[in-house]
Amino acid sequence: MTNAPTPTLAAAKQESGGALGFYGVWVLAAVALVVLPLIFSSGGSLTSFCLIGIAIIFALSYNILLGQTGLLSFGHAVQYGLGGFLAVHVMNAVANHNWPIPLPVIPLIGGIGGMAFALLVGWVMTKRAGTVFAMISLGIGELVASSSLILRSVFGGESGITTDRTSLMPMFGWTFGPQIQVYYLIAFWVLISAIAMYALTRTPLGRICNAVRDNPERVEFIGYDPHVVRYLAYMFAGFFAGIAGGLTAINFEIANSAYLGATQSGLVLFSAFIGGTAYFFGPILGAILVTYLQLGLTSVTSVWQLYFGVIFIGIVMFAPGGIAGILMKHRPLIRAGTLGTVIPSYLVAAIPTLAFALGIILTIETVARFSGGDVINLLGIPFVATAPTTWAAAAVLVVGGFLVARITWRRVAEAWDRAATVARDRGYLA
Amino acid sequence: MTAAIQVNAVEKSFGNVQIIRDLNLSVAKGERHAIIGPNGAGKSTTFNLISGHIKPTSGEIRLNGEVTSGLRPFEINRRGLSRSFQVTNVFARMTVWENVRCAVLWATGHRYAFWKNVDSLPEVKQRTAQILDDIHLSHRRDVPAGLLTYAEQRELEIGITIAGGASVIMLDEPTAGMSHAETERAVALIRRLTEGRTLVIVEHDMSVVFGLADRISVLVYGHIIASGTPEEIRGNPKVKEAYLGEEVD
Ligand SMILES: Nc1ncnc2c1ncn2[C@@H]1O[C@H](COP(=O)(O)OP(=O)(O)O)[C@@H](O)[C@H]1O
Ligand SMILES: [Mg+2]
Known about the structure:
The structure holds 2 protein chains of 2 kinds. Chain A contains 17 helices and 4 strands. By secondary structure, chain A is mainly alpha-helical. Chain A folds into 2 domains: 25-324, ABC transporter involved in vitamin B12 uptake, BtuC, CATH 1.10.3470; 331-425, no CATH class. In chain A, strands 1-2 form a two-stranded antiparallel ribbon. In chain A, helix 2 (43-69) crosses helix 12. Chain A is globular, with a radius of gyration of 24 Å. By secondary structure, chain B is α/β, with parallel strands linked by helices. Chain B has a domain at 1-72 and 204-249: Rossmann fold. Chain B has 9 helices and 10 strands. Chain B has helices at residues 43-50, 73-78, 96-105, 122-134, 150-163, 180-193, 206-212, 230-235, 237-244; strands at 5-14, 17-27, 32-36, 58-63, 66-67, 81-83, 168-172, 198-202, 215-220, 223-228. Chain B is globular and about 55 Å long. The A-B interface holds A 1, 5-8, 11, 15, 199-200, 202-208, 210-211, 213-215, 217-225, 228-229, 232, 236, 278, 430 and B 51, 53, 72-74, 77-78, 82-83, 85, 89-94, 97-98, 101-103, 105-107, 110-119, 121, 125-126, 129-130, 132-133, 138, 141, 143-144, 147, 160, 163-164. The complex binds adenosine-5'-diphosphate and magnesium ion. Magnesium ion (MG) is lined by residues 43-44, 86 of chain B.
């Protein structure tokens, strides 16, 4: 072809600009990971950062299935947990034999464990997508979780198997005893894994995963076997889940059957979905939020899972694209310069919506603490769970908040329409 | 010379309803072959059989001499046959560019590669851009396929079908639902893009059929009642009686 068509030129220009931004983002992420513990240096925040980092890898690995390939798994913790167990066993073996394997390599072992299991069961599992896959993943999850309690020598029963991360050979003088060293180990793997998983989406396989998600039937007519595509995706997801599991084993110096279970599988689904599966960065946001919520809520309420349920339902109903979906919806408005049209309506809507949310919280806590007659501390105000005044306050907040909020939500929708119309006129919205 | 497509005594039943009866069809290499027939005659089912979407109850199908009945669609596609669908069947959430590129990947040998950056494969990029240019969708390259207009989706459907460079192209009613002007444009496109390839096309517009096809087969109730050049088909009394009626005269 002698006459190069113009679209190629335009495409090349666009992609080189994209590449610059692409490297910029990762450099920024690396810098953020390095300086984060210097800014927030308390022990508590360091522990949180470690958990968040692991959750990010785990949620991103889950999205290889859900967001990229359209596979809804209810048993993703299996690969995570098995990676954790393999990591613990290998760490103990390395320590016993004094093998020259440093700790930072161990997550890779976890990844291999997760991938090996996926390799083993994946071919049968990924024959079909949809409900069949979802059900089999649930079954395998239950199967492995219950076996883990029976096979004591491998899984250590209820108590699990412990290890000592400092018993491996030190690296550059690091023993990985102090949490800060573990943090940097996790941060390193978060960065590497996130880059690798992003790169995967930009490969021929990654693109065909999306095609399989959208239309597995048609994929067969452009030369691809969707079964093979799903199988490969499943193995990659298992690999990165295993890395996350290995990091957890290092972080807690233990692996137990809870790592493999349905709760863990549910939590990762939850993170990916809340964050938004349609965008690569969605599950990162979800992992951060869910981990923070989990850490924050468990210390203030006994029914934290109930709140997760409420949030989940809210997202499914009102923002099925998750946080990333909400954010990305604003991009054309920002580009068109019409974001200012909607912001005031958000601020107005925030007040009654917050009241409504507080009412819900008060209701939940009242019900949860009724029998104990406990005191609920909300925004510094003490409410007695058994007092009718508390019930009245809750009712007023819920009903009144909702009625007012509904009006303001309508205002938001109107402001949106105006902003979107302008954005469309300016050519920033299809 | 072996035929591009050879269908021998193929039968297909869904449950106990026989849809295809003793189907025999031969399409020579490089030929433009039109299949016509009333709605429900089994044209799309014939496409499904040849492309491996469904398996024949009995009989044999050959592609370039090789038996392909019983193979999966992707195996048949890899042997050089590509088909489009009567009802648009694209990757709705992916952009126009990505739709076409996906259809280019296997043919350019990149298969399931997970170690190559898809954006830095010059041949893939060039071919995708060329196809987009051919189907007049370059200006829509970044639009999700699901948001295209109906006519644009039909053109994308053709683009995906031809993108892999298959030697045998099968198009199932590519112009269905298009306006007169759109049809003309699409036919010119099909004529140009299938130059030097074998084409099997299902089409209802008789002016298109008689203008485009080297040979025509008439399918009625799952059986080919006549196969021949446009002149032979025009003069065939059985065809006149069963299907064409006065509309050709
Ligand atoms: N998967 C199927 N199951 C049952 N019946 C089918 C199936 N596919 C097609 N048919 C039937 O076969 C007949 C031929 O359909 P089709 O091949 O789509 O006709 P055409 O494309 O010639 O209009 C129709 O009566 C249709 O209902
Ligand atoms: Mg049809």
